[in-house]
């Protein structure tokens, strides 16, 4: 049974369609990389999967025990978010907000999970530090720990390595690979960094305001589009 299904999904802003008829299914433990040029609809689809934007047509369904509120999300970071004046622990704990329901405070279980995720990502010693004083790579680990507080099943990552140096970039992709391969977390990632981002992907979805390709990585590399995109003939 699929964990996520997009059936004939389209999106519009102010009546203008920006993404047309997307169709794909993912199973638990798969790793999808969403590719496409600027403005091709990648972030819009991410918002749809997170239920932050309603499709203008079609349906997005979660299954196999996953609810839409249980998806961990690592958003694209803006400068304002980079300067967020909160402690690392506060940022990570905020990943538990959806699980709090009507409860207006974090409980012991929330704190236990936040500490586990900090430890898992090797950043426990940073827990009392101010988020805005961390390096870009440390900040992304904190945001990943926050996203993991929201889910055991599915992670959505929107440009997770933007602004990171090459070493931190490889480190972050390796962490995501481990979460996918060891913990069987389904991964959906948007990245500009085609070669590295797709290295561990099982599936590719390429958008160009409609669906240009969906299939396995192997199938993608057998298409002219795949070869052109992966070898740099077409950027982003
Ligand atoms: N809030 C909005 N209001 C109106 N149009 C929007 C809005 N957000 C996005 N769009 C338009 O929808 C289209 C798809 O945008 P989207 O951000 O999903 O693309 P993207 O593939 O994520 O781009 P990028 O790689 O630049 O982040 C673009 O033409 C964009 O201008």
Keywords, separated by commas or semicolons:
2 domains, binds adenosine-5'-triphosphate, 6-stranded mixed β-sheet, 35% helix, alpha/beta, 236 residues, Rossmann fold
CATH fold type of the largest domain = Rossmann fold
CATH class of the largest domain: Alpha Beta
Number of strands: 9
| Spatial ordering of strands, largest sheet | 5-6-7-3-8-9
CATH homologous superfamily title of the largest domain = P-loop containing nucleotide triphosphate hydrolases
Structural class by sheet pairing and helices: alpha/beta
Kindly state the mean pLDDT as a whole number? 90
Report the sheet-strand fraction.
Answer: 15-25%
So, CATH architecture of the largest domain?
Answer: 3-Layer(aba) Sandwich
Q: Give the domain tally.
A: 2
**Number of discrete helical segments:** 10
Largest sheet: 6 strands, mixed
Order of helices and strands: EEEHEEHHHHHEHEHEEHH
Q: Radius of gyration, rounded?
A: 18 Å
Ligand list: adenosine-5'-triphosphate
General form: globular
Distance between the termini: 32 Å
Given as residue ranges, the uncertain stretches (5+ residues, pLDDT < 50) are none
Helical residues, percent: 25-40%
Protein name: Zinc transport system ATP-binding protein
Family: Belongs to the ABC transporter superfamily.
Domain ABC transporter: 4-234
InterPro entries: AAA+_ATPase, ABC_transporter-like_ATP-bd, ABC_transporter-like_CS, Metal_Ion_Import_ABC, P-loop_NTPase
